[in-house]
Amino acid sequence: MRFEGVSYRYGRHPRLALEGLSLNLEAGGRYALIGPNGCGKTTLLRLANGLYRPCSGAVYWQNQPLAYDQSALYRLRQEVALVFQNPDEQLVGGTVAEDLSYGLCNLGLPPAEIQRRVEETLRAFDLTDLADFPVNYLSLGQKRRLAIADSVILEPTLLLLDEPTAFLDPGQTRRLRELLGQIHQAGTTLLIATHDLPFVGNWADWVIVMAQGRVVLADSPEAIFQDRRRLRELGLD
Fold first, then answer.
1. How far apart are the first and last CA of the chain?
2. For labeling, which of 41, 65, 76, 97 is most exposed (least CB within 10 Å)?
3. 135-174 per-position pLDDT tens digit
4. Segments making up each domain of the chain, as ranges
5. How far apart are CA 170 and CA 227, in angstroms?
6. CB 55 within 8 A of CB 29
């Protein structure tokens, strides 16, 4: 995916949320997106998924500019999946198993394939015992795991995650890192927006630092975290 001179404004807000942002994501990478609150991380993810449309500039997926008609966006979201920061924004099923099967049913997959993927995903995310549990009664951490599972089950080419470690305890965070490793090994490119810098240091191949709607640094985790003066200036140390 490629962003070329992308700007975005919320309504009539006087300040741009993104301003002339350019960024290139190569296939197979593990990218971490960091920066202070309000720097534009969530906006960038929603532009990548086609939820938002740039005011200027363009977003390219597999060397083609995004189209914003309903059928084009439907195809895009089969390949570029977004896990929202608030899991309640994307959980739609009555039970955990129903929620996992919802997107697969929309794809028109055969029932046997849907059942296989649901069972495998329940095991992978330690949700088997909750398969018939009502979604509304899950804890926040359980909802977070289910929201991630909802996207992973679609087997996207690019997976976008907004603050995936929020509400997870240390053990769940370690398990998430292991699962993301498995997803990456299966060929999925990953882009994670997060404030969890220890997670970034242990997981990412490449770190993108944003401030005031722009990319201000992009380098390996080692190089980024060695520049402590710059991180302090950005409020990230």
1. 29
2. 65
3. 999 988 889 889 999 999 999 999 999 999 887 888 888 8
4. 2-233
5. 27
6. no
Tokens of 113: 């394939």
Angle of CA points 97, 102, 106, to nearest 5°: 150
Are 181 and 156 contacting, i.e. CB atoms less than 8 angstroms apart? no
Which residues, in sequence order, are CB contacts of 227 under 8 Å at separation 6+? 217
**CATH no. of 2-233:** 3.40.50.300
Q: Starting from the edge strand earliest in sequence, which strands make up the sheet with 56-61, in order? A: 18-24, 2-8, 56-61, 64-65
CB 48 within 8 A of CB 77: no
Other CB atoms within 10 Å distance of the CB of residue 147: 24
CA gap 23, 11 in Å, rounded? 24
Length, in residues, of the chain: 237
Strand, helix or coil for residue 235: coil
Q: Give the integer Cα–Cα distance in Å for 136 and 197.
A: 31
